[in-house]
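Annotators were shown the component list below and the corresponding predicted structure, then asked to write short factual statements about the assembly.
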Amino acid sequence: MQFLASLIDGLLLGFVYGLAAMGLTLIWGVMSVINLAHGAVMALGMFGTYLMFTYLGVNPYLALLGVAGLGLLLGFLMYTVAVHRIINAPHLSSLLATFAVNLIIVGVGTAVFTTSPHNVDFSMGSLSLGRIILPPTRLLAALAAVGFTAALYLFLCFTRPGKAIRAVANNRTAAELMGIPSAQVLALSFGLGTMLAMVAGGLIATFFPFTILSGGPYELKSFVICVLGGLGQPLGALVGGLILGGLEGLIPIFMPVSWVPVVEFGLFVLVLLIRPNGLLGAK
Amino acid sequence: MGMGRRTGFWLPVVIIFFWGLAVLVLQDDTLREKVFTLFMFVGLASSLNLLLGYSGYISFGHIVFFGLGGYSGFYLISQHHWSIYPAMLAGGVLSATLAGLLGLAVLRLRGAYFALATIGINEAARALVGNFGPFGGATGLYVNFATYQQYGGAGKALWLTFILLWLTILIILTVSFMIKDSRFGLGLMAIREDEDAALVMGVGAARLKTLAYMFSAFFPGIIGTLYFFKNGNVEPGDAFQLQMSIEMLVMVMLGGQGTVLGPLLGAVTYQGLRGYLLTSPIFKNLHLAMAGLILLLIILFVPTGGIGWLRERLPRLRKVLE
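Structure shown to annotators:
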């Protein structure tokens, strides 16, 4: 029973991890940039939810919409200021540029919020399914993550801007020749990527305490997930998220919780070595 | 080695030589501590430069080699009563071995994947050392004060560590230059410019990259052992400060990646800047954010760093600035 409860708990969390990783993988897939400010952006999502809930009394799930909007704007800003100039430079530049943005966000965040833990004081009691007891916040978070994923898919498949994103991801030069304004499309993709990260952060804030530095470990998880699912594959990110969430639920049964990062990293290196294109990726 | 290049080699070495000598002559404890920190950063930045500057591969978790090498060296001193000389070499060799093993695994990966792996290395190492019994777990290790007696007391031991660090830095600078001047360095720079083309030209990319990674891990291991020996204790939080990995990067980029003098200039400039930021009332809490801003501005506008900028502007100095 304990086993099943831990597994379900982990899988629900896995949906949220998957959502976060999808933000990272989307940006990679479209412009081959690894957003090292991903974790910091997730932490901003946590604080966004926290501020709206604590000071404005907004329901945390409603606040997510606000957080999503802010995320989109932040992404546009980050792309314009830090990424656009070096989009064609070697990887080193974009890694360092997004990393610098990460430092700026974390640095300012530390000055404003300090590094003491905050939490969204929002409880919905507990939900029991048969003999398994679940916190409903986890269930709602998983549902919200699925909802956002579905919305992203619909957007990418059926709207004009979504199709433009896919075209640019496929071949930027060809897309430009067809009259697609690639700069705007790249900015939009970056915006969507940070939006997903912020929403995932906001969801995590509803059940875990957090600090401005909390993004770091989640960023690492997102990398692991992306590598599991294949960088640049949104659906792979969801599958990778579920695998990681499941593992995270089960590992504490067998060994101390502090070993989780070591196991995750071991898995990461193993996948990179055996199937560098991800479990779902092409050979 | 032409006449001009020789000047390029001597310049950083002479600066560090006289700087260290001046501290030894003045015999001032506060000054020694200040210069120790500075030299440590010069050494770390120059080590990172061997990988980042020459091969274009970025390591976000380079402080791991400082931490792990330092941990192992310190472990040998405090638990097995080794003397500092073999212990510091052991720290370096262990770091290099680890880098070699990691390198064989992750350096097959190209640029971005490798960068991701190095971020993971930092986190995993922190968790591993915190959980690993012989290294003292989360509380760390201490040396018995009596250990310092064999060096003629704690005061003498501090001076000895300073001298050892000074010599290490001189060796690092020499090695930096020798690599840059060699066939090995040429191969690395070919990889940096275009790895596919380098492969086609017969550069053994995987082997060279791993070797560069090992070199760049060897020296931080030595510096780590010296640093913790000086402090008398070591704990995971102190050994694996992610922040220091970042600051090393900023220093290399600030001074100029791929040059010998650049990391030296970058480390000195950044330390000066940090000293100002940490004491100024406005920027005290924002020093990490300022480091980020500096880094961003460099990447966007002066991607070759201070020395690179000078070399572009003043072609005549190209012979002197390596």
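Statements collected:
1. Chain A has a mean pLDDT of 87.
2. The radius of gyration of chain A is 18 Å.
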